[in-house]
Specification:
The chain has 170 residues and is α+β, with helices and mostly antiparallel strands. The chain is built from three helices and eight strands. The protein has a four-stranded mixed beta sheet.
Length: 170
């Protein structure tokens, strides 16, 4: 398919779930529930160009299905299974789908960001090079400041291959 222009998103009201903390200079901590594309679209009305710091930890396109183990307690079971796995989410994309997903969201992040604000995008080696290109296209190449390499674990000396021991923050 390739990259498609982002025209707009269908508006669905974001569901405000919680507010906490003290009101400081018109700001109050808020937690919303909903698809992040629609929540960000909702936030544009109030926060366009006002957000100083954005940190995102999007899907990594890890090609994995993430599951939660659920243990059944207190009931006699008729088989040997005392637990089952519940699918939480999948992180499997085609390259085009993943980049389009991120492209649309980075555009909205740019709209929310203050002129002197900063975005930190957490990713890994699978897509960091593509995401940096998207960031430079949307934010402008002169706005990229640095890439941080976050060492998550030490290398394993008994390994026969190179281990993946870091993430990237663009």
């Amino acid at each position: 398919k390739g990259k498609r222009p982002f025209r707009s998103t269908q508006f669905y009201p974001a569901q405000l779930k919680e507010q906490y903390g003290q009101l400081v200079e018109g700001w109050l901590n808020e937690i919303y529930w909903g698809d992040n594309l629609q929540v960000m679209s909702h936030l544009l009305k109030k926060y366009r160009g006002k957000v100083q710091l954005i940190y995102i930890d999007p899907p990594f396109d890890s090609k994995a299905v993430y599951k939660k183990k659920v243990t059944v307690q207190g009931n006699r079971l008729t088989n040997d299974l005392q637990a089952f796995e519940e699918k939480q989410y999948t992180d499997i994309w085609t390259n085009d789908e993943y980049l389009q997903f991120m492209y649309e969201r980075i555009i909205l992040l740019r709209e929310l960001l203050a002129e002197d604000g900063s975005i930190f995008l957490h990713c890994d080696w699978h897509k960091s090079h593509f995401l940096r290109c998207l960031l430079e296209e949307i934010m402008g190449p002169d706005n990229f400041r640095s890439e941080s390499v976050w060492k998550r674990t030490s290398a394993h000396s008994d390994s026969e291959t190179f281990g993946i021991v870091h993430d990237n923050i663009l």
